[in-house]
Automatic annotation (TrEMBL):
This is RAB3 GTPase activating protein subunit 2 (non-catalytic). Residues 684-858, 859-1219 form the Rab3GAP regulatory subunit C-terminal domain. The keyword DNA-binding does not apply. The gene is RAB3GAP2. Pfam families: RAB3GAP2_C, RAB3GAP2_N.
Length: 1242
């Protein structure tokens, strides 16, 4: 009887158990261990399930009773039972625990109980995780199993009849499979593991089922998909009330294991490939000296079995030697799905079947496929020894085997040999622990650049001795031993989640328990935790001890309740006991960076460590550690000295040291003397002084006179320190000391404070140079240093003005982020266009249009940057900023419109043309091609109307700028003299001037496509835009506009011209329908002005006529279509305006004659308000006219209710345009008489 669990997951759902572990890894739970006080590994009390403890006797009665006990009577009696059995009842049950430790299954004979993890409140009010009974029932035949719960749980059950059945965690049967007609001995699962090294073969998921003489393997991916489909179908069947569902068959392989007398357990190692040497060795052993060897070793699946004759067998199945078999799946699903979750006594799941039902099942037993023979490759012969179990390591290279002699054997699976053996472990239970290297250990490892290492440990539970041992692999010592009960069960799953692959496992962090120990006496589930460093060497390793001491110090520093004296003594002891210099330095850094210890405590600890290092042999002391202790000790002593001078302490070091002096709260000379005695370099003190000055800009500006005076004093004092300004400094050269001050001011974003500091430094430098010069000289000393300061001050003044503008907050609801930081360094690194780029970003945040930009910018800013903020340069950068923002969010079409608006304001056609080329190649062509290809594919108009209108405007700018380039010379761009040192990228205008000229026909070709796409999107027309062009036209699209392409020429194919004409006619029809804002019952009587944009814009007819000329469509056809559509819509006045431009009046007259007949036919024959006079007029009409009117179809009119006066006017127009010799001239006269008569009657 076998119990085996595995886990399924969907959509990468996992259940994080880290909270459970932390909840029970506390001081309230006593840890049992047989090691010394220095813990090397620990037992963690994990998830005590009190419901299970209180009901343990009742549960045993349930599992061993021959009668059925329903869960309805079991559940309330669990808490009433208080006795606990001490008999080894658990050894008679099959137990399985999920990898996440959230589901436990116990089975005995035909009954099973599922215990699920749940939260509950104990008497003390604290919540704890318990395992409570969630389902019990009788299993058909003999065996059962369970899994974890990242998403849902599948229970795999093996039976003595050979069946393997799959259940949910609530007892619902998913599918059943008869693979072999022998009892199931073992079920084992292999799930996906992320390969830790490039050379490791990636193993696939697999479920293996062992029979006495056969082994069946089911592919994990196929099984996962089948079980998921079955679960979904069961849920749908429960909702629909159906009975049976047929799932797809399973794909499996079946091997007949030969040459071994008895087999009791197995392990599926996975796919392996022999090296060339092993391949040649095997070939020579099997085939002799003349054996042939294949070029590449074949991939093989390795299976290891234990039993008798031989004691251990190794089988190898070459990939492809056996084709997967398709099984017949018997699915049992009944209509009572809801009630089955709670009623274990019902027989609808196949439990307690009567004889007739069993006979029916026997008659319909599915076909069992024969096994493929698989001979043993080799084994470990031992006639007296019989193996009992085998446990595969997580790395698939080692395996532990137990036997009836009380030995535990360690096998090397790659070499097929025994490498270690333990004796005195009768009835032993095995498990494996794979521990990753801690991040702290990697820093001290010589192989820190290599992938993260893993340590392997073997866990052995000896129930007869009541001890749990942990051994390091492969030849390592015992690293831990725990005294436990003699009736426990060691639970080792050996797998994780099923359904995970190399893609879904990225970033996968599943908290699973590798080894757990279940104690039935106390009802406690425990896990084993082992630190990685125990695998490096024995317990006396100095490095491992140092790491342990460092962790001990870290734990001590985290505790806020430790007294300073105790903390000082403990920290001293730890630091002095650590031997490794790098670890000792890290421990000291961790101590000094902690905020809890007082300064005196840190000073005493550092001083004690420094004295100890000084007393040791100089050759044995690490110089870096000694220097670090010395510098830190000086810093602590300086801190103490400064603190005594200040009235109030500040948190940051530089604020603590200098702000008191700058604000006038501390004596300047005493602080300077203390700093000089501390031995800190003046360069470091200068950097600290300027840092606090720049960061306290607001406080400085509140009292500028006092703070500036104090800054000057401190700056002079630091300059006079030894090592500050060199005595041999020549004023005609640049001083490194004052260059440091300039560098800090140049990099600062606080322009006001930096400007004040620069003015103070400039004054100090001038005084220093004057004092060094000849006092008798009447000439003012000229110095390169002073010139540098003049330039720096001027730049800071410019930055201050610019920063004042950039800090103006944007209006509420405007786009854009925070204000850009501005400094001399950022502007210089931004190149010649850095200033214009900063202003353009501010323009975007302010949501400003191009027209009012000149009036918005301050005059002082424009005066300071006459070249950097010239109109063309500024408009060019604003245009580029808006198009960049549009590219980030294409839904904001207004950004692109404003980009084109700024481009329009650029006066230079050279810059304008270059920016058009850059915008096209960088942004526009990608969007335009995507829209064209998408519409070509789906033949449906898109809805992004805001995208293509600016594209059309951009194309028009292309053509306008291209025509004006030859008339105007290219502009010359320059920058201000103080900003000539810019070394960053070129400005947008400079890049635009570097662009090559465009090919005008190619621009016009793309403009044509953009107009067609714009029309299709505006009026939601279904069209394939690229199909309106021939092969040459299609190939020319989306090319570089500076290249010359082969363009369409000559007469087009008539069929293609017909398609173009049809599209333009549809555009005109849609425009006419859009401009009619009134219903058919209230037609337009006057020609109202039309808007300038959108589908009602007045330029659509002229655009279509222009497109028609480019597409070789007769424009007169388009004009006649506009006239007819306007009359059809009842817009007679607009139609009369367009009628004047029509050339072929005869054809237009024939078309309008039909339209007039439709109007008159509607008034006389189809109107609901027909009058007696109209009927009499119809009787008086000539027969030919009457017949012609009856043949008219007024339903084609979109506006049939037109006043008779408009129809009479239309007929009059017909008489004017139709010649007298026209065939339908007489019909027009009859229509005129009829309309006049009808008008007279009205």
């Amino acid at each position: 009887m076998t119990l085996f669990p595995f886990t399924l997951t969907e959509n990468e759902l996992t259940w994080d158990t880290s909270d459970w572990e932390s909840a029970w890894d506390s001081g309230d739970n006593k840890e049992e261990e047989a090691t010394s006080a220095s813990k090397v590994c620990s037992f963690v009390f994990h998830q005590p399930f009190q419901d299970f403890i209180s009901g343990i006797a009742k549960l045993l009665q349930l599992l061993t009773n021959t009668h059925t006990i329903s869960t309805e009577c079991f559940a309330p009696q669990v808490e009433e039972v208080t006795t606990v059995q001490s008999a080894p009842w658990l050894q008679d049950c099959v137990v399985s625990l999920s990898p996440c430790s959230d589901l436990l299954v116990l089975a005995h004979d035909q009954k099973a109980a599922f215990l699920s993890a749940k939260w509950r409140s104990v008497d003390s009010g604290r919540e704890e995780m318990t395992l409570a009974v969630s389902w019990t029932g009788t299993l058909s035949n003999d065996e059962g199993s369970s899994t974890g719960r990242p998403d849902w749980t599948c229970v795999v059950v093996g039976f003595t009849s050979g069946y393997v059945r799959f259940y949910t965690e609530n007892g619902v049967l998913l599918l059943a499979q008869l693979l072999h007609e022998d009892p199931v001995l073992r079920l084992k699962c292999r799930t996906y593991e992320i390969p830790r090294h490039p050379g490791v073969t990636e193993q696939h998921e697999e479920l293996s089922i062992l029979y006495p003489a056969a082994l069946v393997t089911i592919d994990g991916f196929s099984l996962f998909q089948s079980l998921r489909a079955c679960r979904n179908q069961v849920a749908r069947a429960a909702a629909a009330g159906s009975d049976v569902i047929q799932p797809p068959p399973l794909a499996y392989k079946k091997w007949g294991l030969q040459d071994m007398e008895t087999i009791v357990d197995h392990s599926s190692v996975g796919i392996m490939t022999l090296c060339v040497f092993d391949q040649m060795r095997n070939a020579s052993i099997l085939g002799g000296f003349n054996a042939s060897v294949k070029g590449s070793p074949p991939a093989m699946c390795q299976y290891v079995t234990v039993g008798g004759g031989p004691y251990t067998g190794f089988y190898y199945a070459v990939e492809g030697s056996s084709q997967p078999l398709l099984s017949h799946v018997a699915l049992a699903v009944a209509s009572k799905l809801t009630s089955a979750l709670f009623s274990a006594a019902s027989g609808w799941l196949g439990w307690h079947k009567n004889k007739n039902e069993e006979e029916a099942v026997q008659k319909h037993k599915p076909k069992v496929e024969p096994a493929t023979p698989l001979g043993i490759r080799f084994g470990l012969p031992d006639s007296r020894r019989h193996g009992e179990s085998i446990c595969l390591s997580p790395c698939n290279t080692l395996a532990g085997v137990t036997d009836d002699f009380g030995r535990v054997t360690l096998l090397d699976l790659a070499r097929g040999i025994c490498i270690r053996m333990w004796k005195g472990y009768r009835d032993a239970q095995l498990g494996w622990l794979q521990v990753p290297e801690e991040r702290g250990d990697r820093e001290f490892s010589p192989s820190s650049a290599l992938p993260r290492r893993h340590a392997l440990f073997l866990v052995i539970y000896a129930p007869r001795r009541g001890i749990l041992e942990v051994w390091a692999m492969q030849q390592g010592p015992r690293v831990g031993a725990f005294t436990v009960g003699k009736h426990c069960r060691l639970l080792y799953a050996g797998y994780r989640l099923m359904g995970v692959n190399s893609v879904t496992s990225q970033g996968w962090q599943l908290h699973t328990q590798q080894v757990c120990l279940l104690d039935p006496i106390t009802g406690v589930l425990r896990t084993v935790n082992i630190p990685f460093h125990l695998a490096l060497s024995d317990k006396k390793s100095e490095r491992a001890k140092d790491i342990h001491l460092f962790k001990r110090l870290t734990t001590l520093l985290r505790s806020r309740e430790v007294e300073p004296d105790i903390l000082e003594s403990e920290a001293k002891s730890v630091l002095l006991d650590i031997k490794h210099p790098a670890i000792k330095k890290q421990a000291l850094e961790s101590l000094l960076s902690n905020k809890n210890p007082p300064v005196s405590c840190l000073t005493n600890i550092t001083c004690s460590l420094y004295d100890t290092l000084k007393q040791q042999d100089p050759e044995e002391v690490d110089d870096a550690l000694l220097q670090f202790c010395s510098s830190q000790l000086k810093l602590l002593q300086l801190y103490t000295g400064i603190q005594n001078l200040h009235s109030a302490a500040d948190t940051k070091t530089w604020n603590f040291m200098f702000w008191g002096c700058l604000s006038g709260k501390s004596p300047l000379h005493k602080v300077c003397d203390t700093l000089q005695q501390a031995g800190i370099g003046p360069q470091q003190l200068l950097s600290l002084l300027l840092s606090v000055w720049l960061q306290r800009e607001k406080e400085v500006l509140q009292k500028p006179e006092e703070t500036v005076r104090n800054l000057h004093t401190l700056l002079i004092a630091l300059s006079n320190m030894k090592g500050a300004v060199e005595e041999s400094w020549d004023p005609q050269s640049v001083s490194p000391w004052w260059q440091q001050v300039r560098s800090i001011c140049i990099q600062s974003h606080n322009a006001a404070a930096a400007l004040l500091a620069a003015l103070v430094a400039h004054h100090a430098v001038k005084a220093c140079i004057t004092s060094r010069a000849d006092s008798k000289s009447e000439w003012e000393a000229v110095s390169l240093e002073l010139e540098q300061w003049v330039v720096c001050v001027r730049q800071l003044e410019d930055v201050l003005v610019l920063q004042t503008l950039l800090l103006v907050p944007p209006p509420q609801g405007a786009a854009g982020g925070a204000a850009a930081q501005c400094s001399i360094k950022t502007l210089l690194e931004g190149g010649t266009g850095g200033i214009a780029d900063s202003v353009s970003k501010w323009v975007f945040r302010q949501n400003l249009a191009g027209d009012g930009l000149k009036d918005t910018l301050p005059k002082q800013l424009c005066q300071r940057f006459p070249h950097s903020l010239s109109p063309d340069l500024l408009f060019a950068h604003c245009c580029w900023e808006y198009v960049v923002q549009w590219n980030k969010d294409p839904e904001e079409g207004q950004h692109l419109c404003w980009a084109v608006e700024h481009l329009r304001l650029v006066s230079s056609p050279h810059i304008q043309l270059g920016i058009c080329t850059m915008m096209w190649s960088t942004f526009i062509v990608k969007r335009l091609s995507a829209a064209a290809y998408l519409m070509e594919k789906v033949s449906h108009a898109l809805t992004k109307l805001t995208v293509l209108c600016p594209h059309c405007l951009l194309c028009s700018f292309f053509m306008q700028a291209d025509s004006a380039v030859e008339e105007v010379s290219a502009p010359e761009l320059s920058v201000e003299e103080v900003w000539c040192g810019a070394e960053g990228p070129a400005s947008i205008a400079e890049l635009a001037l570097e662009q090559r000229g465009v090919h005008y026909p190619l621009v016009q070709h793309h403009c044509l496509l953009a107009s067609l796409l714009h029309a299709a999107m505006t009026f939601s027309l279904k069209v394939k835009p690229l199909s309106l062009f021939d092969s040459k036209g299609k190939n020319a699209f989306f090319r570089d506009l500076t290249t010359i392409q082969l363009m369409p020429s000559g007469d087009m194919d008539p069929g293609l011209v017909s398609l173009r004409q049809e599209f333009l006619l549809r555009v005109l029809t849609s425009w006419v329908q859009a401009i009619d804002d009134f219903s058919s019952s209230a037609p337009v009587t006057s020609s109202a002005p039309l808007p300038s944009c959108g589908p009602k814009a007045d330029w659509w007819p002229s655009l279509c006529l222009e497109l028609g000329s480019l597409l070789q469509v007769n424009p007169d056809i388009l004009r006649r279509h506009i006239v007819c559509e306007l009359y059809n819509q009842g817009l007679d006045l607009r139609a009369e305006e367009v009628m004047l431009e029509v050339e072929d009046k005869d054809v237009l007259g024939s078309q309008l004659l039909v339209l007039t007949g439709q109007r008159l036919s509607y008034s006389l024959l189809h109107s609901q308000s027909q009058t007696q006079a109209a009927m009499e007029l119809l009787a008086r009409l000539p027969p030919t006219l009457c017949t012609w009117l009856k043949a008219m179809d007024p339903s084609e009119l979109r506006c049939p209710l037109v006043p008779l006066t408009q129809t009479s006017r239309l007929v009059g127009r017909l008489i004017e345009i139709l010649p007298e010799n026209h065939a339908q001239y007489s019909l027009a006269l009859h229509l005129l008489e009829a309309v006049e008569a009808l008008t007279t009657e009205d």
